[in-house]
C-alpha cells in the first residue's frame, strides 16, 4: 500500500510540473516581446513557477529516495512473507491426515496479525525480521497444535521440521536420498539373511537398501563380518537411539538425521522417539515445539486460547472419554 501511494504521489508531481511548464510556455508565447521586461505579472508568474518547479523536483527526489528505502525494507521483510506462505500451505495439508483439520485463509491471517502485534519492536530491520519469523512460527504452530489429536502432533511437528530442513534452516545438510529412505523405507527382497539368528529378514532388506546411500557403503559388511556381536548388542538395547553405534559408525551421533536412517532399518520401533529427539536438537527452539503445552495446566491453556479468540471466533472442545473441562471453563468465566 505504501508503495502504491508513493507511485501515485510521483505521478501527481509529474502532472503538476507538466501543467506548470505548459502554462509558462503559454504565457511566454502570448507576451509582447517589446514589453516583456515591463510585464510585472508575467515576471512574478515566472518566479512563482520557478519556485514551484524547484519544490516539486525536491519532492520527486525525496520520493525516489523513499522508494529505494521501501524496496530495501521490502526485501528484508520478504523472508517473513515466505515463512507465512510456507506455514499456510503446510497446515492445509493436514486435511489428508484427518478431514476435520480445515484452516481458512482468514483465520490464518488473523493469527498472523496477532503474531506481528506480539513481536518485540526493534530498530534493526534484520533483527526485527528474525523476531517476526520466530514469533509467527510459534504462534501458528501453537494454534494448530492445540486442535490436533495427540497421535498427530508429532506428525505435524515433523512436517514443519522437514520443511525447514529442506530450506536449509537447520544445522545438518539436507540430502533428498536420505529423506526419501526415511519416509519410504525401501527394502531388498529375495536376499539371504546371514544374521537370521537375531535380525529379521525385512530388516536385513532395509540394511541392503541403506548401503546404496552415499556414506553407508560398508554398513552391511561391518554388520555381517566385522562386528556382528556388537551390532547385536546395539540392536537389543532398550533405547538404541541413545547408544553409540559400533565401529566408526559412532560418528553418526554428530549427524543425528543419518543415525535415524540406521534406526529406521534396524529398530523402526524406536524411530518416533529418535525423531522427537532430533527435532528437539535440530529445530530452533525445538523443545518448545515438541513439548508445546506439555507442561501447561488446562487452566493456562484455556486462558491462552481465550486470548486468541474473539466474540466471533468461539472455542470448540473435542472431548475424549473422561475429559470434562466444565469446571475450568466456569472458573475462567468467574475470574
SS elements, strand count = 0
Spell out the helices and strands N to C.
HHHHHHHHHHHHHH
Radius of gyration: 33 Å
- Strand fraction: under 5%
The amount of helix comes to 55-70%
Number of domains: 3
Q: Please report the distance between the alpha carbons of the first and last residues.
A: 42 Å
Backbone shape = elongated
Question: Uncertain segments of ≥5 residues (pLDDT<50)?
Answer: none
Largest sheet: none
Helix- and strand-based class?
A: mainly alpha
Please give the count of helices.
Answer: 14
How confident is the prediction overall: mean pLDDT?
83
Structure report:
- It is a single chain.
- This protein is mainly α and 335 residues long.
- The chain has 3 domains: 2-148, no CATH class; 172-278, no CATH class; 298-334, no CATH class.
- Helix content is 64%, strand content 0%.
- The chain is built from 14 helices and no strands.
- It has helices spanning 2-30, 40-91, 105-118, 125-145, 150-166, 176-184, 201-210, 219-226, 228-235, 256-266, 271-282, 286-290, 298-308, 326-334.
- Helix 2 (40-91) runs parallel beside helix 4 (125-145).
- The protein starts with a helix and ends with a helix.
- The mean pLDDT is 83.
Amino acid at each position: 500500500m505504501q508503495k502504491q501511494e508513493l507511485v501515485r504521489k510521483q505521478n501527481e508531481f509529474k502532472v503538476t510540473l507538466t501543467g506548470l511548464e505548459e502554462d509558462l510556455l503559454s504565457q511566454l508565447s502570448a507576451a509582447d516581446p517589446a514589453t516583456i521586461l515591463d510585464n510585472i505579472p508575467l515576471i512574478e508568474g515566472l518566479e512563482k513557477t520557478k519556485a514551484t518547479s524547484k519544490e516539486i523536483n525536491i519532492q520527486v527526489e525525496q520520493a525516489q529516495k523513499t522508494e529505494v528505502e521501501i524496496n530495501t525494507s521490502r526485501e528484508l521483510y520478504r523472508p517473513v512473507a515466505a515463512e507465512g506462505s510456507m506455514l499456510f500451505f503446510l497446515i492445509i495439508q493436514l486435511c489428508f491426515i484427518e478431514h476435520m483439520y480445515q484452516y481458512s485463509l482468514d483465520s490464518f491471517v488473523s493469527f498472523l496479525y496477532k503474531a506481528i502485534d506480539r513481536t518485540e519492536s526493534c530498530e534493526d530491520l534484520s533483527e526485527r525480521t528474525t523476531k517476526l519469523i520466530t514469533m509467527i512460527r510459534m504462534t501458528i504452530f501453537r494454534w494448530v497444535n492445540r486442535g490436533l489429536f495427540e497421535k498427530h502432533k508429532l506428525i505435524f511437528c515433523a512436517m514443519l521440521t522437514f520443511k525447514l530442513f529442506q530450506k536449509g534452516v537447520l544445522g545438518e545438510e539436507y540430502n533428498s536420498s536420505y529423506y526419501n529412505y526415511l519416509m519410504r523405507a525401501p527394502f531388498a527382497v529375495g536376499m539371504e539373511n546371514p544374521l537370521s539368528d537375531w535380525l529379521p529378514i525385512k530388516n536385513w532388506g532395509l540394511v541392503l537398501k541403506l548401503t546404496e546411500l552415499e556414506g553407508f557403503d560398508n554398513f552391511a559388511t561391518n554388520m555381517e563380518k566385522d562386528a556382528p556381536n556388537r551390532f547385536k548388542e546395539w540392536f537389543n538395547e532398550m533405547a538404541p537411539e541413545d547408544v553409540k553405534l559400533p565401529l566408526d559408525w559412532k560418528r553418526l551421533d554428530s549427524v543425528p538425521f543419518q543415525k535415524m536412517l540406521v534406526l529406521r532399518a534396524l529398530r523402526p520401533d524406536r524411530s518416533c522417539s529418535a525423531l522427537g529427539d532430533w527435532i528437539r536438537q535440530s529445530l530452533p527452539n525445538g523443545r518448545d515445539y515438541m513439548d508445546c503445552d506439555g507442561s501447561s495446566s488446562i487452566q493456562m491453556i484455556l486462558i491462552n486460547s481465550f486470548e486468541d479468540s474473539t466474540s466471533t471466533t468461539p472455542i470448540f472442545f473435542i472431548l475424549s472419554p473422561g475429559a470434562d473441562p466444565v469446571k475450568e471453563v466456569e472458573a475462567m468465566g468467574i475470574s
